Amino acid sequence: MEIIRSNFKSNLQKVYQAIEEADFFAIDGEFSGISDGPSVTALTNGFDTPEERYQKLKKHSMDFLLFQFGLCTFKYDYTDSKYVMKSFNFYVFPKPFSRSSPDVKFVCQSSSIDFLASQGFDFNKVFRNGIPYLNQEEERQLREQYDEKRSQANGAGSLAYVSPNASKCPVTIPEDQKKFIDQVVEKIEDLLQSEENKNLDLEPCTGLVVLHSFTCSFYGKKERYIVISKVDEEERKKREQQKHAKEQEELNDAVGFSRVIHAIANSGKLVIGHNMLLDVMHTVHQFYSPLPAVTLDLFTVCCLLMMKCCASLLPHLQDIINNTSLAELEKRVKETPFSPPKVESAEGFPSYDTASEQLHEAGYDAYITGLCFISMANYLGSFLSPPKIHVSARSKLIEPFFNKLFLMRVMDIPYLNLEGPDLQPKRDHVLHVTFPKEWKTSDLYQLFSAFGNIQISWIDDTSAFVSLSQPEQVPIAVNTSKYAESYRIQTYADYVGKKQDEKQNKRKWTEDGWKEVERKRLSTQGLSHPFSATSRVGKRNLSPGPGEDRVSGEISDSELEQTDSCAESLSEGRKKAKKLKRMKKELSPAGVCGILLKPQGCVLLNCSRNL
């Protein structure tokens, strides 16, 4: 079923019903592009860690738009031993709801647009008729705007309609409008005195009049007409309720397609996808929370909150499934040892013909994904004693495969684990190689020709991973580059160790960078060097005598609190405060830490563990 903005509201209950009845769902998405920089090969390196793959996709793929979302629900009919399917194809687009709504910016990749166009994709259904949506933060802000308008109306008296630009102070009336305003006031006073008339039609004007105990209506396209109606308290409350209901309807319209995602999340049912990491990332990014602020750990939490369960069976059937592209996978599961499932479309829903291969329509791809899952799940049932022909989506037999997102083209980490630690392969047979930009794959094969079969995974134009078939050959390969000028070879472990050192050095520079900035600031004010052992506060003693102020020794909690409050005035104050708290734990009683307190902030003078 094709769903666009014009028929979304009328079909929403059908979507909700399908989600409520289903045993599991299959999803798929179509995007405006895949990568804004690196090639797909570089974006999906064979030796990525789950963290690296997530970070690369987050950096290079999230500015594209998921503009077609396929949802296919499956419910098993035990009477006829068949699945009943309902397929939905949603076209989504972030149409601004109002002038204050988010004006989303996104990018397109020409190759992706050209490919979808060649598949008959109708872009008008996206850009002209796409269903709007809001993420959770945008929805919260919109609700607050409505609440604020409502509270302003209630606080201003019995107002049915309030101008968004209404001033809370007396308005100065221009001289050329005083006559008109006086006439309006006179007509309103006559309306108040009249027992027969309840409405007053004013002449066309551009101003907005806010009145107590009246409602104001506007009509007309080019000219604005104002109709003032006199109402009693009961009528006023009725109109307020109608206005509130209209606002709620407008809010629901703005939230749009996100309501479908909320329904899927709240169902707690199994969600199936094919190579679905990018689909899930875009779903979280567009309809839940923008990913730039989400780490991999938070991303896994978001996935579990939104979808509860995802399944990845492919890595565990790789011995009998060689090609995981969706079209080839669908053909493979029709052959032995698999059995094609019996699946029919529900009444009133269109059916798909797999012979026509409507690939890259999100609804059809979701449908094929569901068929493949059913076949593979039922195949696992053949190993039971006695064998089971039908394996339910709730079966404990497939629970080990829940919450594992397939990592495409990663050689030794088949999935990203959403509920536990990721796999940690040894990779002692992997080498990291750097070389001139002019080198090609053939040059790498030539370089390692003496080491038998190898696998090459490009990182960028000047580096790649090379895996050897025999780990004991790694030291020999590394030694060959000792005296080479054009290339360098190192073990995977050395490569990872250097990357970690670089991160630590970068973090240390960030933490210490504020010192140089503060030193320059103080020097411009004629103060002593803030990091020298001597300063204006004089000599520091380890143990203050009677009557002396304690200026050294172990830092007290109150000092730290004072330091923290001072540090907040500095651009990097928070980092400094955290560093001081760590120092409190590390300092021995013989340590010393001098603090110079100033109105502008606080400056660490000297800190030494042993004096």
From TrEMBL:
One of its GO terms (cellular component) is nucleus. Its main location: cytoplasm. Pfam families: CAF1, RNA_bind. The keyword Magnesium does not apply. PANTHER family: POLY A -SPECIFIC RIBONUCLEASE/TARGET OF EGR1, MEMBER 1 (PTHR15092), POLY(A)-SPECIFIC RIBONUCLEASE PARN (PTHR15092:SF44). InterPro entries: CAF1_poly(A)_ribonucleases, Nucleotide-bd_a/b_plait_sf, PolyA-riboNase_RNA-binding, R3H_dom_sf, RBD_domain_sf, RNase_CAF1, RNaseH-like_sf, RNaseH_sf. It comes from Marmota marmota marmota (Alpine marmot). It comes from the Eukaryota. It catalyses: Exonucleolytic cleavage of poly(A) to 5'-AMP. Residues 420-497 form the Poly(A)-specific ribonuclease RNA-binding domain. This is Poly(A)-specific ribonuclease PARN. One of its GO terms (biological process) is priRNA 3'-end processing. It is found in: Cytoplasm; Nucleus. Residues 528-577 are annotated as: Disordered. Keywords: Cytoplasm, Exonuclease, Hydrolase, Metal-binding, Nuclease, Nucleus, RNA-binding. Belongs to the CAF1 family. Its EC number is 3.1.13.4. One of its GO terms (molecular function) is metal ion binding.
